[in-house]
Amino acid sequence: QVSSDPIRDVQKEVREWARDKKLEIDALKSQEKYRREFLSNISHEFKTPLFAIQGYLDALQEGLIEEDPQLANKFLSKAANNLDRLSYLIKDIDEISKLESGELSINFQQFDLYTLINEVIESLELKAKKHKIKLYFNDKPKIHSMVNADREKIRQVLANLLSNSVKYGRENGTTEITLFELHDQILIEISDNGIGIDEENLPRIFERFFRTEKSRARDIGGSGLGLSIVKHILEAHQQTISVQSKEGEGSTFSFTLEKK
Ligand code: ADP
């Protein structure tokens, strides 16, 4: 179609250019905001364990070892726990920055979910025992369980979800893993009867660094990055995750994978 008004055409072009520029600037601004928030969160998350370690070591240096060897021992192990927390934090930050920058590629392959789930359960058995939680894989009836996904990344998804169900479980609680066969997907459900998440916080648990007050107060190691890593990995697979939870009763996380 030939236009009859060149001035109007130019105006339209300028308007479009201005709109595109504004979109570009908005995107940059939100990236910048994101970067600032990320850095401020990181430094905050580092401070807590670092100050704790400093405190314990100061006390030890000031003669606690001679004065109260038992307490000194306790402080040493607390310092070690906080060091652990720092190293997990660094590992998670490394992981999430790779995921968010798109640096990490997904290597699709066909594998059997049954085997992987059993492997992950085995790797967490000791931790589960320590927290008095039973990890139960409800693998009957047997269903089609071959999927097309990145095996190592899905291992991490399973490990993060199962380890949360152990961390936030109740004594003598159970975590149940069940698979459901859908039309062209497998649905994986991980259900615990632990402390649960209140309604207000539930929409936020996939955010970076978000931890409920309750889990912070529980003195359980965690970076608040586990679930956002899980979400990123599943999004990179074009799959989804959802959660249902009731405070004091438990939580159920469900995600899908492509059936093969
Ligand atoms: P982290 O466990 O390191 O704190 P996550 O990103 O894995 O971080 O989880 C974010 C928060 O969501 C946790 O701090 C906890 O408050 C809540 N949460 C996650 N999984 C569960 C669960 N199974 N039961 C209760 N709360 C949970």
TrEMBL record:
Coiled coil: none annotated. It catalyses: ATP + protein L-histidine = ADP + protein N-phospho-L-histidine. GO terms for molecular function: ATP binding. Residues 41-260 form the Histidine kinase domain. It is an enzyme of class 2 (transferase). Signal peptide: none annotated. Its EC number is 2.7.13.3. Keywords: ATP-binding, Kinase, Membrane, Nucleotide-binding, Phosphoprotein, Transferase, Transmembrane, Transmembrane helix, Two-component regulatory system. This is histidine kinase. It comes from Albibacterium profundi.
